[in-house]
Design goal:
heterodimer; A: 328 residues; mainly alpha; 18 helices; 76% helix; B: 494 residues; alpha/beta; eight-stranded mixed beta sheet
């Protein structure tokens, strides 16, 4: 994908202001003791109560919450918070490991982990989702700079990891695919498309297949198997076809001969928008918007800036999804 | 390199001491370290242990068959999970090692005059077709010819290759050696015999179908010069130049890429012993002789030697240089070769399991039980568990279910799914290191390859019982010209 046609200055300025607004609003909400994190947690807690001891879930916070609940007998809310808080050191470690030593990595890591937004997410039961998304964004962000044999497997692992940590990640899979095409090494897209698909999506497919099979074997509640229809059947008719096209968009565009960054981007956006116009209207749209922020920043931003903006861009999508469920 | 008239001197010397050399080549290790020789399949203690285990199992099957099977089941699953975790750790370590610079010293600290003499051992049997290709590849080595001592090692009844060798390799640095017809007819015996007249400080083995990268020996000599004396061997990476020939050569190339580009570098960075490959391992000769050289009764003498050197406090490291070989192109020869390897791994496992556990560090046991041993265990037990699974799917769950009580059922399911998927994923990653993208989709055929591995495993078990020291020769063709091989390798690396 050619994104260089867009003006880097405008993209950066807009993103900075968006970030400032986001930071301010979330910080204010935290300081003013807004109760919506607890409302979100209540929803998660309710789910946990409903499934304790039965079935399998792909969401790691949930799995750990379930284990803590079963082992300790604490109430579901405490179990969920404990499970979610376990992700905090992981996030700190991940940020420190992925930040160059010259940039005060531990200071940066502690600041990010203890930021009101991060703490809110931990308390709301989305700790592991934060780690999963941050990890994915870092891997995708570093993809253009890495050799294919190093970057592509890591991207696959990142997508697989996000599937295990982010609730209903299958919804984000299509937008992630779009970003992946933007970040992937050009040689992979132009000469080794099959390999590109295999390396990027084999882990997530294997994990999903394993979980679905295990769920069938052990008689779970069908939450994992339900993800497949959500991904494939949730969009009916034309949009399903278009979503499938989205995954193969770069190859498709090559075949039909569309050239130039702006034209390709337009096709991609049309595909996303059309595909999102049916039952799952808001979800992929928001996901794509958040991901696009990250992708633009990857190509044009400064390393620190795109790290932060990618993280919070992804988190914003989660927040909006939960805050505005009527959109989904 | 031998000077003028040296060939005659060597011939006279061999005629005089030939019998002693032949005796040492066959019985040297067995006489010095009887426990470490594979001549006897099991020693007395091992036979006792086997009897006790068999008695316990028999008693278990009579009085508590289900519980006994559950325990066996649990042990197999535990082994699989450990191998799974080890492979993951080795993958991580090999990537980290590549990024962190935990690599051999580079640079040319030695000039042509100070480079050590290298003895190249080339054991061959009925490989007339392959000899010209090997001579061509050796002539391309970037190493002063005066510092090479090349031994073409042949069997007395192989008149065709002997005749051709006398034409192609008649002058220095070549030295044609005819091995005596005593003891087992194996490659390690031939190499031991040739080692008696080696002139080099360093020794390396190349097979007839090998195409070593031209800079390999120079790189090894320079690395040795900067490494401590305790590093006794440098193992070059092996892979195949004919990987495009068939689906099995492709999978073979993937497997070698996994072993030599990911697993062994991971072991190297862990400081664990390396089960050496059959060729392109460059030794310091004094260490090789000190540990008793190759075991003529072991059909994977290379893996055994790597472990024996580690047991003697020596180490082996990976050399970042590749030797390209010719892979077997169809299933039948592949099975012959693979069954020999698995039989050799079984011999090696049994031999080194005789040594007291506390005499070796944990890295040694890691390599022995979870790398060498796991190949044997997987080959033998995988089909049994797949058969159980197929029966269960076919509706025979009533008698299989009790063998998998909770939580073993969950762990077994995890091992089945995660283990297989992870190994397929490793197969996908392995060829990426060499930018062999076209091989990646073939990783999906890995389960078929593993099935063949089990067939070879049962053949190996049968041979281990009836003819443990029989060397099943792998037939090779004339091979590709070295120039073609390296031109292709260069194209791919761009």
């Amino acid at each position: 994908m050619e994104l260089k046609a867009a003006s880097p200055t405008i993209a950066l300025t807009t993103q900075r202001w968006l970030l400032v607004a986001l930071y301010s609003s979330v910080s204010a909400a935290f300081v003013l003791e807004a109760n919506w994190p607890y409302e979100i947690l209540a929803g998660r807690m309710g789910d946990l109560s409903a499934v304790t001891g039965v079935g399998l879930r792909s969401d790691l916070s949930f799995v750990l919450g379930q284990m803590i609940y079963t082992l300790t007998g604490y109430n579901p809310a405490i179990s969920m918070i404990m499970a979610s808080m376990m992700a905090a050191p992981c996030l700190a470690l991940l940020v420190a490991r992925t930040t160059p030593a010259s940039q005060n990595k531990w200071v940066r890591s502690i600041l990010l982990t203890t930021h009101p937004l991060s703490l809110t997410l931990f308390i709301a039961g989305y700790g592991w989702a934060t780690v999963g998304l941050y990890g994915l964004w870092r891997l995708l962000a570093e993809l253009p700079a890495k050799a294919p044999h190093q970057g592509m497997p890591l991207a696959g692992i990142g997508i697989g990891g996000a599937f295990l940590t982010v609730p209903q990640f299958s919804v984000y899979l299509m937008p992630v695919a779009a970003v992946l095409f933007m970040c992937a090494p050009r040689t992979m897209l132009s000469r080794h498309m099959r390999v590109f698909y295999l390396l990027s999506f084999a882990p997530v497919t294997m994990i999903a297949a394993s979980l679905a099979y295990s769920e069938w074997l052990f008689g779970g509640e069908g939450t994992i198997r339900a993800a497949a229809p959500l991904l494939l059947g949730g969009w009916s008719g034309l949009s399903l076809v278009l979503l499938a096209s989205l995954v193969v968009a770069p190859g498709l565009m090559r075949v039909i001969g569309i050239k130039g960054g702006a034209a390709r981007l337009s096709v991609l956006l049309i595909l996303v928008l059309t595909a999102s116009a049916e039952p799952m209207a808001a979800t992929p749209l928001l996901g794509a918007a958040a991901i696009a922020q990250g992708a633009i920043a990857v190509r044009h931003g400064e390393p620190i800036f795109w790290t932060v903006s990618s993280l919070f861009g992804g988190l914003l999508a989660i927040f909006l999804l939960d805050r505005l469920p009527h959109l989904a | 390199m031998p000077g003028p008239g040296a060939a005659d001197k060597l011939a006279r010397w061999r005629a005089r001491f030939g019998q002693q050399h032949a005796h040492a080549a066959v019985h040297g290790l067995e006489e010095r370290h009887p426990l470490l020789s594979a001549k006897r399949r099991f020693n007395r203690e091992q036979i006792w242990v086997l009897r006790v285990v068999a008695t316990i199992l028999l008693t278990g099957f009579v009085f508590a068959p289900i519980e006994t099977l559950i325990i066996l089941n649990g042990l197999f699953i535990l082994h699989c999970m450990t191998v799974f975790a080890l492979r993951g750790a080795l993958l991580y370590l090999s990537v980290k090692e590549r990024n962190s610079g935990h690599q051999l010293p580079q640079g040319n600290s030695l000039d042509d005059d100070t480079l050590p003499i290298v003895t190249i051992l080339c054991p061959m049997y009925k490989e007339e077709a392959g000899l010209p290709g090997l001579v061509d590849a050796l002539s391309r080595l970037d190493y002063p010819i005066t510092k090479l001592d090349i031994k073409i090692i042949l069997e007395a009844d192989d008149q065709g290759t002997i005749g051709l060798a006398r034409t192609l390799c008649q002058s220095a640095p070549y030295d044609i050696i005819i091995t005596p017809d005593i003891g087992p007819r194996t490659k390690p015996k031939a190499c031991n015999y040739a080692l008696m007249s080696a002139l080099g400080e360093l020794v390396v083995i190349y097979d007839a179908e090998d195409r070593p990268e031209p800079g390999q020996l120079r790189l090894a000599a320079n690395s040795f010069a900067q490494l401590p004396d305790s590093v006794a061997c440098l193992q070059a990476r092996l892979n195949y130049y004919n990987r495009e020939d068939s689906w099995i050569t492709r999978l073979f190339a993937i497997e070698y890429a996994l072993l030599f580009d990911l697993v062994l570098p991971g072991l190297d960075s862990l400081g664990a012993p390396l089960p050496l490959g059959g060729t392109s391992n460059i030794f310091r000769i004094h260490h090789l002789v000190a540990v008793g050289a190759w075991d003529p009764y072991n059909v994977t003498e290379d893996a055994d030697l790597g472990l024996r050197m580690a047991a003697a406090g020596l180490s082996s490291r990976m050399l970042k240089s590749t030797t390209y070989e010719e892979a077997t192109k169809s299933v039948r020869p592949w099975l012959r070769q693979r069954s020999r390897w698995i039989k050799g791994y079984l011999q090696t496992w049994v031999v080194h399991a005789r040594i007291k556990l506390s005499d070796r560090g944990w890295p040694f046991h890691l390599t022995l039980h979870f790398l060498v041993g796991s190949v044997v265990v997987a080959a033998f037990f995988n089909p049994i568990f797949w058969a159980l699974y197929a029966l269960w799917l076919a509706g025979a769950g009533a008698w299989i279910d009790p063998l998998f009580p909770s939580p073993l059922d969950g762990i077994a399911t995890f091992a089945l799914l995660a283990g297989n998927f992870f190994h397929i994923w490793l197969f996908m990653l392995a060829p990426m290191q060499r930018q062999w993208h076209d091989l990646v989709p073939y990783a999906l055929l890995a389960p078929i390859y593993w099935t063949l591995q089990s067939i070879a495993g049962y053949k190996a078990l049968w041979q281990f019982i009836v003819k443990p020291h029989y060397w099943e020769k792998t037939d090779h063709g004339c091979g590709e010209r070295a120039a073609t091989v390296f031109a292709r390798a260069q194209r791919e690396s761009v």
